[in-house]
Amino acid sequence: MKTIRICLLWHKLEAGNLGVSALSVGQILLLERISRTHNIKFEYTTVGTRSVKNMDARKHLSNVIKKNVNHIDYDLSINIILGLILGRGLFDKFDYVMDIGEGDSFSDIYGLKRFLWQFISKLHVIRCNTPLILAPQTYGPYSSYISKLLSNFVFKKAHSIFSRDKESMNIVNKSGAKCYLTTDVAMAIPIDKFVKPENARHLSIGINISGLLFNNGYSGENEFGIKLEYRKFIENLLLAILKRKRTCVHFVPHVLNKQMRVEDDMAASEKVAEDLKNSLSQSQMDRIKIAPQFSNPVQAISYIAQMDFFIGSRMHSTIAALNNSIAVVPVAYSKKFLDLFDNVQYPYVIDARQLGTDEAVSQIMDYFDDISRLQMCASHSKHNANTHIASYISALEEIFLGRDH
């Protein structure tokens, strides 16, 4: 049996951001499909930021695939610095490095500091002469000259590049490198079909409230440039939904970060629920529930699978809904939402950078009144995603089996 040692750079299983964790789970499950088909033994090591306490995705995944997944923190230790300078160390013991950039961090949307940290790690791989595979992710935007220059350098040095949307593919191709189009690897996580009883008393409406948008971004100054007033948007949306009979609202936090409250969806959800006590009757408050704190993305996906309609501001919460063929309305704060859902032909996305508060609420309620159409479209888009996943698997098979790519 052929053994291939794979470093999964910027994959993080035990992440407070369940979207980042879902990318890691999806990537490994895809590789395990190849392993079973071609009798290849993959040995996995994730490399990235420190694991978060009370998260158990690594343990859960290891039980599923019947093997351990190791982890190495990537930080500015003396060993990392020397390895980067000398072109050896961390990455030269692997056969391939697959870098997913935590989904969208190889960009300057979150600031130049995060982008440079991403670049340094990729440069380290290149210096070690280990084949660098850029796994499906969002590339760009690159607003500064330095980020464009450095990203183009990485693209030209990479062994293979995959994108989860067409716009990112075009950005890479403009550099002179070749990028292959697929979709988000979280689409590869299998789901347990959940059938709601036909006589269910309520329609279950899932809402993911983004702590980041609730706090107006990291700076508190709306650095994402969204037009709608997010707190007012959430309040008005809830009031509109709860006016409808037979609706039950579930707040579904998808980023759990008590150490960084500006990001924490749970804290934002609890704050919204507390503030609504002054606006709603007790009977309406009884129709609001907050999901438990999940310890891995599969728990979140299973919970979302029980919804009839889902609205989310964290992209991977909405991917989980689409993956279950649920009528879903992503609320986008960046191009990554629009481009990814366009790639699987799902048009029911609210662009928070373009619509005002009242317009966004009105549009979502129109979608709510057309649940069947959205469900049909979600099912079709899931099929499109599966086609992209199949092409990604085929490309990886060519790489690992030694054929030309």
Q: Write down the domain tally.
A: 2
Q: From the coordinates shown, what is the CATH architecture of the largest domain?
A: 3-Layer(aba) Sandwich
CATH class of the largest domain: Alpha Beta
The CATH topology of the largest domain is given as Rossmann fold
Brief sketch in words of this structure:
This protein has helices spanning about 20-40, 55-65, 80-85, 110-125, 145-155, 165-175, 210-215, 230-245, 265-275, 280-285, 295-305, 315-325, 335-345, 355-370, 370-400, and strands at about 1-10, 40-50, 70-75, 95-100, 130-135, 160-165, 180, 205-210, 245-250, 290, 310, 325-330, 350.
General description of the model:
By secondary structure, the chain is an alpha/beta fold. The protein has 2 domains: 2-181, Rossmann fold; 203-383, Rossmann fold (3-Layer(aba) Sandwich), CATH 3.40.50.2000. The chain contains 15 helices and 13 strands. The chain has helices spanning 18-38, 57-65, 78-86, 112-127, 145-157, 166-174, 211-214, 230-243, 265-276, 282-285, 297-304, 315-323, 335-343, 357-368, 371-400; strands spanning 2-9, 40-48, 70-73, 96-99, 132-137, 160-163, 180-181, 203-208, 247-251, 288-290, 309-312, 327-332, 350-351. The protein has a 7-stranded parallel beta sheet, sandwiched between helices. Helix 4 links the parallel strand 4 (96-99) and strand 5 (132-137). Helix 3 crosses helix 4 and helix 4 (112-127) runs parallel beside helix 5 (145-157). The chain is globular and about 65 Å long. It starts with a strand and ends in a 5-residue tail after the last helix. 46% of the residues are buried. The model has no long low-confidence stretch (mean pLDDT 93).
